[in-house]
Amino acid sequence: MSRDTLLDDEKVLRAEDISTRRFNDRGNLRPALRLDENKYPAILGGSVIRTVLIEQGVSRKVTLSAIDAVLSERASNAFLAQRGFATGLAECVYKNRAQGNTVFPGPMATTVQAIIGAVFKDSSENFTAVEGVMKALGISWPE
């Protein structure tokens, strides 16, 4: 096994540890960690994040303005990037060497969304699985 393959596996395993999700097919997670491949999983993940937060608000019987406020905060790129960095997900990202191996906030937010999209796909669209990962990443409804 090549050194690059081992590093790839370490990144995927670390992302699983951080997300508390053991993927049925790690082929769902790997593209979420690649900045050049994670745009489509991120579109799905962003939508799923919003859906979960809305459902959590509805189940709490909060006002629409309260739901909007939580969405504005918790589904924002700034918040998602902050959670990605805080949980250590930046170390799991396949970085763009042309940018000095730095993960910037925008791509970090996209990666977090893509991971949620990957969980949704890997779990056969199971929102309970997604909620568990969102909680582990600190992006669920505020208590």
Automatic annotation (TrEMBL):
Q: Which InterPro entries match?
A: RNase_III_sf
Q: Which GO BP annotation is one of this protein's?
A: RNA processing
Give GO MF terms, alphabetically.
ribonuclease III activity
Q: What is this protein called?
A: RNase III domain-containing protein
